Amino acid sequence: MNRRDFSRLSALALTGLSLPSFSAASDLGLQGGSGAGEPVGYALVGLGTISDIFGRGCLQLAGKNIKVTALVTGHGDTKGKEWAARYGVPESSIYSYENFDRIRENKAVQAVYIGLPNSMHCEYTVRAAKAGKHVLCEKPMAISSAECRQMIDACKQAKVKLMIAYRCHYDPTHLETERIIQSGAIGQIQAFEGGFGFNAHPNQWRLDPKFAGGGPIMDVGIYPLNAMRYFVREDPTDFTAVVSTRDKTSHRFDGMEQTMEFTMKFPSGVLASIGTSYGENMPGFVRIHGDKGTIELGPAFDYTGIHLRSLEPRIHADATSPDDQTFHFQLEATHFADCIRTGATPKTPGEEGLKDMLAIEAIYRAAGHPIA
């Protein structure tokens, strides 16, 4: 189902009826790519949890012109072979980080999916571009705006496409939220509230500034930040921010802040307030206030069960995303594959990631707290 079809169906939300809850990708008519020919082959770069979810999404699209065709890992003889068996990848298409550049010779790979720690995104995007491969890179795009620009330039010079994996841009419930806002049903937007956080366990890369590049805003706070930019269709110009670390004993936060709260003002006058943390279980949400009503996404950024509701009885908004952990990944993999086939620009190109990084840098400056 394209956006027009979904909007037609979800118009029920404004006529007093509820939207259906989508239980499977097939409910949206997900076809796994348009056009004929050989499948678009993805190389999974970094074999962590998120790459596995992406890969399983590609498996569900088997026979629909998308497949996993190569793996990049530092554990080729163990994890690499295990994943190769899982995804039907020949062992000759298992690469290490050292010989990654040889991927240019693999004609079965048209694109790479980068699921590495943040500080490695730039290097492997640039190397993939030089190898002639299109790049789907996880968010945050990089750890600085300078790196983002380097990635954009490298892909342009190599004439390959660059897409940032903002999966919620492809989620039907987020699309319905956007449609309701643009319809004027809740009136002129006045303010946004949002947040996302979790209690991070020690000894993981996201708590190491060398790999993460910053605190929780880089990992989870970027979700509501990006959503508010997306929904208001503007980029913020004014920022305030404060950071705090209350946990002084576990040493989890020796290299970064534990919690951050920040505000943004957009050119139209819309205000946004966001909290993010690695020290509390903060379910992701976005609350959108208009002068005629309020709608809320909550949970807003989970892999499954994203839910839209109205906080105003007069406005009927009720939609829930499918209970399928791979659903968003199928949507973004399909979208990028279609862009590769047709030459279209991805909906979330590198420039989208750069805008978020510029905002994050401004937020850290407003906090008087240098980015890690």
Automatic annotation (TrEMBL):
InterPro entries: Gfo/Idh/MocA-like_OxRdtase_N, Gfo/Idh/MocA_domain, GFO_IDH_MocA-like_dom, Glc-Fru_OxRdtase_bac, NAD(P)-bd_dom_sf. Residues 41-166 form the Gfo/Idh/MocA-like oxidoreductase N-terminal domain. Residues 176-296 form the GFO/IDH/MocA-like oxidoreductase domain. SUPFAM superfamilies: Glyceraldehyde-3-phosphate dehydrogenase-like, C-terminal domain, NAD(P)-binding Rossmann-fold domains. Residues 1-25 form the signal peptide. The keyword Signal applies. It holds the Pfam family GFO_IDH_MocA_C3. Belongs to the Gfo/Idh/MocA family. This is Gfo/Idh/MocA family protein.
